[in-house]
Each structure stands twice: as structure tokens, then as C-alpha cells.
Amino acid sequence: MVNSPDFIYKDQQYKTVFFETFGCQMNKLDAELSLGLLQEEGYRIVDNVNEADVILFNTCSVRQHAEDKVYSHLGSLKTLKKRHPDVIVGVLGCMAQKDGEAIFKRMPHVDLVCGTRMFSRLPELILKIRSHGSHVLAIDEDHIVNVKRAVTYRPNIHQAFVTVMRGCDNFCSYCIVPYVRGREVSRTITDIKEEVQALIANGCKEITLLGQNINSYGKGLQGAITLGDLLSELNDLGGLDRIKFVTSHPADMSRDIIRTISRLEKVCEHLHMPAQSGSDQILKRMRRGYTSTYYRELIQFAKELIPHLTVASDFIVGFPGETEKDFQETVKLMEDMRFQNCFIFKYSPRTGTKAAELEDDVPDEIKRARNIRLLELQKCISLEENKKIIGKNVQVLVEGASKSDPNRLSGRTKQNHIVVFNSPRNLVGRLVNVMIYEVTDLTLYGELKNSP
Ligand code: 5AD
Ligand code: SF4
Fold first, then answer.
1. 268 is in an annotated binding site
2. Which one of 11, 89, 382, 442 is most buried, by most CB atoms within 10 A?
3. Local structure of 290: helix, strand or coil
């Protein structure tokens, strides 16, 4: 049915797609992969819903707020769908996986609900809706994501995200990820290398390896493969300048991996390793599998081996039962660790998780006050740390025009600082030296010294 010439002809009329992504980097990459597939099918990407034949949202369910935003966007499409019933509205990703059929009940004008492991079949699912004229639900949990990437489709020619593992087996008590993204599945080194080589051939200089729990990369693969092995192999590839990876889990980050990172010149000197809390009592209830002392010692070990290492963290405030004393322990951890930057979240109960069985007993105004307190503290620390760089030369991989001033260039150091500087010519994709003369908590400003 789907292949009838009559139908293919009809489908040629419906070839524009509007795509909006919420949530993490993995979602952004999945969006890229989906758009790559749709482009291969002849779709043109538009940035206005009114010009789209297909409207897709790649969603996040890590906090309630992220879901509310999507439902509100979907709600606002009701009139458009009434006027143009042929337009297909689809919900992809974590919220699709989690809410499934319930999305059709709440938003009957939605045509497609496509879970976290089914996006590689998007073109076919869209055709199915067109041919049958009915809702399509695709949330199969056993399906393994395997997308042959269109390397030419990515927002920036010099940088690319590469998924190396999907899912998470940790089941931290507050987290919905293991339920919506499923168990950990690692890609083979051969498969990843092939993709990275194709990216390099297409002009890519920096790759960021993605995994919900990247330190356990290799689990389930043949042989005792680790993240260290993968990084070593990628470090040997000619043409690549930098390798980054996220997100690290303190309990799965072995000292061996840290030793390996310290030896590999292309691997960035930066870890995003969320602590979530500084209180042992809360960490235990979060099922994080480490204590605050363990976390401190791990970072101390890493900083001894990698002297310029910077660390970023995530914290959740207002987890059930978090007292002022628990919170002060988080404040102390933040003061002591001198993070480069931190993401702070108010606890949001997620139905189905272990923590959702506990009473969400920290009032919202206290959550908000703790959130602001940590943000302000981190802002001071980031500024103090950045001030230490004034007068120094840093090596920058140039990413593009600065967002705040398109006449200047912007890039990042190996330690993940954002650097903005003037340049007489376009140096995008190049490694350059910049002397820093001014800083804020978020940005270093400098003067171009020389470009190798
Ligand atoms: N409530 C608030 N924040 C959460 N995170 C994960 N689950 C929740 C939740 N239920 C935060 C963690 C994680 C980041 C991606 O989101 O800090 O590291
Ligand atoms: Fe969620 Fe914990 Fe897995 Fe991270 S490690 S995705 S916080 S369950």
C-alpha cells in the first residue's frame, strides 16, 4: 500500500517539516539524525509552523516543566490543525515514550507519537499516517536505534555530536531516564570510528561523545571494552583536534579512565560530572552510589593528574526530606570544589520513579530560594576562577560569530571556557591563541595573538 505509485505521487506534495527540540544534547542530536533522514526523503526544513506539512516536537520528560511546555505548544496548534487537517503533528522522544497513547487522549489533534527508539523509522511512520489517515503510536521498547548518519547534515561543519551509548542502568531514584530511554546499549568501537572518520572527511574538527551514563560505555560489548579504550582509539585519528564526552557519573568514573584521559592530548580537560547533592543522606536516598567524600576525592585525584582540569556539575535542590543542614552541605561542596559552572534544578517528582513514592515535602518557595542561593554562589566562584585567567594565553577552537556580537568570533578552550575576540578574518574551525584581558562569570574576552 505504502509503495503504490499513486501514493508516492501524492506524498510529493507534503514535503516541509518544522522541528523543535526540548531537553538534552542527546535530544538535539536525535533531532539532527531525524532531520537528516527526512532530508534524504526530500523534506525541506522550515522555521515557521504555518509553512510546515509536518510539525514535530522532540520532547524531554526529565522535569514537569519541560513537559508542560510541550503540551502548551501542542495546544496552540489546535486551530492550525482545524484549518489544515492534512498537516501532521508528531510528538517524539522521552515524553512520547512515557505518555504514549495518553497524548492522543489529551491532544486528539496529534497524529504521531514516536518513542525514543523509533525515530529512525520516521519517514515510514509519516507515510503510514498519510495512507491510513489515522493516529500512529510507535513506542516499541525492543527496537535498537541504528541510524546511518547523513554526515552532511549538522548545524556546524567543524563540530559534531556522536552517540556512543544510549539508555541508563543506574536508576537514580529521582530520574525518569532509565524508564524512557531504556537499558544501556553501547555501540561498537568500529561503528563509532566509522562515523567519526566520515565526519572528519566532511571537515569535522571536534567531536562530543554522548551517553546518558558515558562512563559505563562498553558494558555488554564483547571483550572488556571501556570508555578509555574508545577515547584512545579516537585520539589516534588524524584530522581531529578535540574530543569531548558527556555525561559522567561519579560512581562509574574509574580512576583508570581518568589516567587514560590525562595521557590523551586531544581529549578535553573538562568533566561534566553531576554531584546532585553534598549531603550523604540525600545522596543515599537519590541512590547515587557514592558519598560526598568519595566525590571530593575523585575530583582531587583527577585534578592531580590533569592540572588544568575544569569540572561542571548539576545539583537538585528540594529533594524529599532535604533539610537546611543537608542544603548547607551542598553549599559547602560547591564552595570547596570550585566548579567551572553548574546547572541547578528544583526537584520535580516523576511518576514511576522511586523518589515519587516519597512525599515532595520541601515547599516550592524554599526550593526556589535554595536554587537562587546556589546560582549566586556559583556565579561568584565562576567569576573568581575566570579572573585568574586574565593576562594568560589560551588556545581556542573557533566555533563561529559571537552570539552577543556578530562582529566578533567565539570559541572554546580545552577546558570549555567560552572565549570572545576580535579577528580581521574568518578563523572558524581553526585553533588560535588568544590573550585574555577581561572576564565575566560566563565569558573570557581576549585579543588574537597568532593563528597557527
Ligand atoms: N527533578 C529535578 N531535576 C532532575 N534531574 C534529573 N531528574 C530530575 C528531577 N526529577 C536533573 C539532574 C540531572 C539533570 C540532567 O537533570 O540534575 O543531572
Ligand atoms: Fe538519570 Fe542517574 Fe542515569 Fe543520569 S545516571 S540518566 S541521573 S538515572
1. no
2. 89
3. coil
Q: Which region among 33-47, 78-92, 311-325, 368-382 has the lowest average model confidence (pLDDT)? A: 33-47
Q: What is the pLDDT of residues 272-327, one digit of tens each?
A: 999 999 999 999 999 999 999 999 999 999 999 999 999 999 999 999 999 999 99
CB of 347 closer than 6 A to ligand 1? yes
The answer to whether 77 and 55 have CB atoms below 8 angstroms apart is yes
Pairing outcome for strands 431-439 and 418-422: unpaired
CA distance from start to end of the chain = 58
Question: In angstroms, how far apart are the furthest CA atoms of the chain?
Answer: 69
User: Residue 382 is which amino acid?
Assistant: S
178 in contact with ligand 2, CB cutoff 6 A:
yes
Which 3 state secondary structure label does DSSP give 357? Answer: helix
For 81-210, strand residue ranges (E) read 88-93, 112-114, 136-138, 159-163, 165-166, 185-186, 206-210
Q: What is the three-class DSSP state of 245?
A: strand
Which of 143 and 160 is assigned the larger pLDDT? Answer: 160
**Structural domains of the chain, ranges and CATH numbers in brackets:** 16-138 (3.40.50.12160), 156-268 (3.30.750.210), 281-388 (3.30.750.200), 393-448 (2.40.50.140)
E strand or H helix that includes residue 378: helix 364-387
Q: Length of the chain in residues, anyone? A: 452
Task: Say if residues 233 and 243 touch (Cβ distance below 8 Å).
Answer: no
Q: Residue 393 carries which side chain, given as an amino acid letter?
A: N
Question: What integer best gives the mean pLDDT of the chain?
Answer: 93
Rg (CA), the chain: 23
This prediction has a pTM of: 0.92
Report the phi/psi class of residue 270: left, alpha or beta, with left for phi > 0 and alpha for psi in -120 to 50: beta
Residue nearest to atom 13 of ligand 1 (CA): 314
Question: Does ligand 2 have an atom closer than 6 angstroms to the CB of 448?
Answer: no
Q: Strand 206-210 and strand 242-246: pairing? A: parallel
Instruction: Region of 160 please: left (phi>0), alpha (psi -120 to 50) or beta.
Output: beta
Q: Note whether 310 and 381 are within 8 A (CB).
A: no
**3-state SS class at 329:** helix
